[in-house]
Design goal:
single chain, alpha+beta, BirA Bifunctional Protein, domain 2, five-stranded antiparallel sheet, two-stranded antiparallel sheet, rod-shaped
Length: 411
């Protein structure tokens, strides 16, 4: 397997030597005037994010709306020669013939592509707006486009080398350092930053894909050493693949274990809930049983009281009193009592009237008896006086025969 290839460039709308953002968008879209280097141009395929037309529109709209603060706090539109776009090219060393004819190579390229997109997202986050793939050149390769998200739309900080060099330049010379030494130090910062950027890409994408960090010419390797290094790269790739497989299996085992543990916990929770529900139901049943027992006890006591009261009630009067007292013990009895009240009152009034009449008749009889007694005494006295007169008359003269005069009793 050959070495990795990764390059980052910055572009402005004006561009240099005619290679501005417009040309870059034309090239990736395979506009004929910008694709003279391609024998048979083919349409790009979207791997992530926007298609070429949407990418162009988004960049141009942001560039027009971008504003740069100048002296006095005023804002002005950004210059046409300010870099507003970062473009990255990542190429796989497999040839297109190998890619099309060998499934294992195509699988390697797809895995490299996924790792590359993940690395780009880790590097640039939401500023990564589009990743496109070309298959119309000698090797399968990706074009990634990053748009700055600051108001001034400055793309410089998106380039690791430019960012490091700008930081050294802005800090100024160290004590005793002249301008030339300061410039050399800024250039070294640029180189170190780019080296670190490529090392990070190699560690996260190149090595897992079986790619070497550098080619043989830069390190002056012999052909045998170069092939040995490639063999080692393939072995490292296989080892990393096995490690990834083991990692995946381990993760799957952990996931299964977690899933089984979750099921056990859920089952235990369900059983605990069922036990709690059973306890609550038992407690409720116990309460209902106690309530029924209390109700039965009260009913028994009430029945006993009613039995004792029934035994005390004898005769019609007792029955009426018992009925009346019983009716007083419920709301229904109250309504019945209200309905019977007029009748009862009439009975009571009739009884009182009868008692009054009986008393008056008894008094009248007593008075009549006293009057009769007086009249009888008066009649007896008159009879005695008559007899006395007759005796006196008989002494002086014989009494003529006179019919007796009947005496009527005085009324």
């Amino acid at each position: 397997m050959a070495f990795q290839f990764a390059r980052v460039e910055l572009y402005s709308r004006k561009g240099k030597e005619g290679r501005g953002t417009g040309f870059i968008f034309d090239e990736v879209s395979r506009v004929p005037s910008a694709s003279m280097h391609v024998k048979a141009p083919g349409a790009p395929m979207v791997v992530a994010g926007l298609d070429p037309d949407a990418l162009r529109a988004l960049h141009d709209d942001r560039a027009v709306a971008a504003r740069q603060e100048v002296k006095g706090g005023k804002l002005r539109a950004v210059r046409q020669d300010q870099n507003t776009l970062a473009a990255i090219v990542l190429s796989h060393p497999a040839t297109m013939d190998e890619y099309r004819s060998r499934p294992e190579v195509a699988a390697d390229v797809r895995a490299w592509e996924q790792r590359s997109v993940a690395w780009l997202r880790d590097q640039y986050g939401d500023q990564l707006v589009s990743v496109l793939r070309h298959e119309d050149e000698s090797h399968p390769h990706l074009h990634a486009y990053i748009l700055p998200d600051d108001p001034g739309m400055k793309a410089g900080p998106l380039h690791p080398g430019f960012r490091a060099k700008a930081a050294v330049t802005a800090a100024g010379p160290r004590p005793g350092e002249d301008e030339k030494a300061h410039s050399k130090r800024a250039n070294r910062a640029y180189q170190e930053a780019m080296r670190g950027w490529l090392d990070d890409y190699h560690a996260k994408v190149g090595q897992p894909s079986g790619l070497l960090r550098l080619g043989p010419r830069k390190r002056h390797l012999t052909r045998a050493a170069w092939h040995e290094e490639k063999r080692q790269a393939v072995a490292l790739k296989e080892a990393l693949a096995k490690a990834e497989t083991l990692k995946a299996k381990g993760a799957a085992f952990v996931d299964r274990t977690k899933e089984e543990a979750a099921k056990l916990r859920a089952d235990a929770a369900r059983r605990a809930d069922a036990a709690k529900a059973a306890i609550v139901a038992a407690q409720a049943a116990e309460r209902r049983a106690k309530e029924r027992e209390e109700t039965a006890r009260r009913a028994t006591a009430q029945a006993e009281r009613a039995t004792r009261a029934a035994r005390r009630l004898t005769g019609l009067g007792g029955a009426l009193r018992g009925l009346w007292d019983g009716l007083r013990r419920s709301k229904l009895a109250a309504r019945i009592r209200e309905e019977l009240r007029p009748t009862v009152e009439r009975w009571q009034q009739a009884e009182a009237a009868a008692a009054a009449r009986a008393a008056a008749e008894s008094d009248r009889r007593a008075r009549a008896e006293r009057r009769a007694s007086i009249l009888s005494a008066s009649a007896a006295e008159l009879g005695a006086q008559r007899d006395e007169l007759r005796r006196r008359l008989d002494r002086y003269e014989p009494a003529p025969e006179v019919a007796p005069v009947p005496v009527r009793p005085h009324p």
